[in-house]
Amino acid sequence: MGNTHSPTDVVILGGGLAGLTLALQLKKRDPDTQVLVLERRADPAPDATHKVGESSVEIGAHYFDQVLGLGDHLKQHQLRKFGFRFFFSEGRRDIDQVTEIGASRHLSVPSYQIDRGIFENHLALEAKRRGIGLIEGATVRQVALNSASAAAADGPHQVGFEHGGSTHTVQARWVVDASGRAGLLKRQLGLAEPNQHLAHAVWFRIKDHIHLDRWSSDPRWRARCDPQARWLSTNHLVGAGYWVWLIPLVSGSHSVGIVADPSMHPFTDMNSFDKAMAWLEHHQPLLFDELDQKRHLLQDFACFKRFSYGCKQVFSAERWALTGEAGLFLDPFYSPGSDFIAIGNTYITELVAMDRRGERLGARAQIFDQLFHSFYDSTMALYQDQYTLFGDPEVLPVKVIWDYTYYWGVLAQFFFHDRLTDLSALAALRGELAQCQQLNASMQNFLRQWSGLSLKRNPAVMLDQAQMPWFAELNRSLTDKLDANGFIARIRESHERLNRLATEILRRAQAAHPTLDTSALAQCLSATADATGTDEPMLHETLP
């Protein structure tokens, strides 16, 4: 005989990062909202839980800290990240003799290296403390959605699950799938949507920290950073068609991943630990030297042949939604996973709040879904077909500055200033946002063409982002407090900044390579208000 639970407002399928943060956000928005989380795992997660998503960036970190109120945990029980860092160390053991991209000091807005096991266990405890129902060891067997075509279209959904050797049923007004790549609702509703980003990834964890700062004994190289703690960065060792990540975890482990374009680095060359080590010996020998003596400290190994995918729909007026990897996934480069959880959960929370107020969801759910997919498409442009230039010490530094400027200047501004659901601001900025998106797509194509001609010079320099005043100020500006008019002015300022930066990039590339076809980017710029590029230089002076 099955057990029937009391009806609830929201059932969340999955108690990992996406599901638990959504539960906390819903409860914080409206403490009267009844939330039940069904998590398959019965026991607490081990430290260094084998999941991608340890590196947070500004949106995700702000979401965990300010939106969910988890700042004390982040500061006391996780590692503050020393930003992103890139080394053009393909085939090299002299890391102090290659180009490095990174900041010499912490910028204003913090981000964190997150041990997923420690963090998700804390989220579970916090959920229980805040009155959220959490059933661990629950296996979802059936989701019966009450569709709009049903006779009682406003009636509840029904979820069947197994727990403790018996069957259970619960009715809920909302069902949110946070089941990760299992994608329970996505499969049930036929929402899976492949994309054209074919990259693969392998990753593992070593039970020891990798102190990259010790890879050189040159005191001048070490002293470029204050603190001398490059190892706390999300370090990227880059080469043509791939990048390797190094992410430290507070539990004492280090996460190592290889992400590659299969046309240049076949999956079968790295799909076991021994193969990955042989691959590293050839492409990143200094990291191989470090890991070779620590093989006995290997904790785990996993791989995805094709990790990136889309989803036809993630929010529905019929009171269901998908969040996290149950919906879509981009690429781990720039660590956008927790950002998209934050954005998606914010839209879901707004829809649930509207529903509880008795408001109609149809138009708003459709707009939120379109916006979320627009953010996905804009971010995908940073990755798709771009892996060929990752080993280019001349062009990748320009791409990194552009990509940060686009992220901090547009999407992060919307999130930090709580304007994701502000349709009046979105309407007022429709033209600027469309042009920014078009300019970004054109820039990504241009960077790829430029890399096809570049000499790929790799001087022993550090391209210090902290020494670019406008860049550091853009990061700091995320913490401003803006009213509606101030926010609109801020996005218009970002639009103008992107045009100035694009103009400078075009001129810099054209000066180095007069035969480079600049027509498409120039045409995109010709429609902008002020792209004269008369301000102070925005790029590193040492770039070609």
Automatic annotation (TrEMBL):
The enzyme's E.C. designation: 1.-.-.-
Pfam families named in the record: FAD_binding_3
Superkingdom assignment: Bacteria
Domain spans labelled FAD-binding: 8-215
UniProtKB keywords: Oxidoreductase
GO molecular function: oxidoreductase activity
Xref: PANTHER family: FAD-BINDING PROTEIN, SLR1998 PROTEIN
Protein name listed in UniProt: NAD(P)/FAD-dependent oxidoreductase
Organism: Hydrogenophaga atypica
